Amino acid sequence: MRFRQAIPPGPDVSPQERYAGLGLGARADGDRPYVVCNFVSSADGKATASGRTAPLAGTGDKAAFHLLRTQVDAVLAGTGTLAIERYGVPVRDERLIEIRLAEGRPAQPLAVVISRSGDIPFEIPLFGNARSRIVLYAPPGTAVPDCPADVTVHEVDSAHFELGDVLRSLRRDHDVRSLLCEGGPILFNALLAEDLVDELFLTVSPVLVGGDELGITSGARLETPQPLRLVWALEHDGNLLLRYARAYAE
Question: Going by DSSP bridges, is the β-strand pair 239-246/199-205 parallel, antiparallel, or unpaired?
């Protein structure tokens, strides 16, 4: 598989040439991880079709999706996304595990689960796999059933809950320097509202969905629009694979 590199202009590249060796953890500054978000969207701005992302994801997007998981210390997804997409152990392909190991990371990233309510989809494959390393932020008294996964629980006060506190805990307690958020739209919007997003990887799929499907953000409007800088634009089979950074980032 090759991606056509449109911006900046250049020769075709393989997915690994573009989505490995990113050095995201080295960009961590201050007391929280460097946060990148990854989404796929239809041409008319929808994040799902019939409630799922799979109908939007082409082979190029899937390759980028899995490679981005090799580049981070931890992967975050909202409980709704975890349940709908039936999350399992983050990295399954041995070739991808080798990339993580070669770049000095453990075979599996931490899977980060956050719940204000304590309503957590313990039945998904993620909790049923002994290779899963999970950090759970949940209200006091949340009952975690016996499961093969390695689960560490941090209690959070749902009445005074901020995502920034979770990110600082990940950095302080788990040495997480790079974090990948895979949705959903409510969680992404909440990260934006606290000014916690450093980069956005966005694939625009050449399909139209229509209807009232959610976009990649859902929630209160940001007080101030956050400008982005286009780092690259790739094309594969009609899909545009875009990488954006905060406009003031180097």
Answer: antiparallel
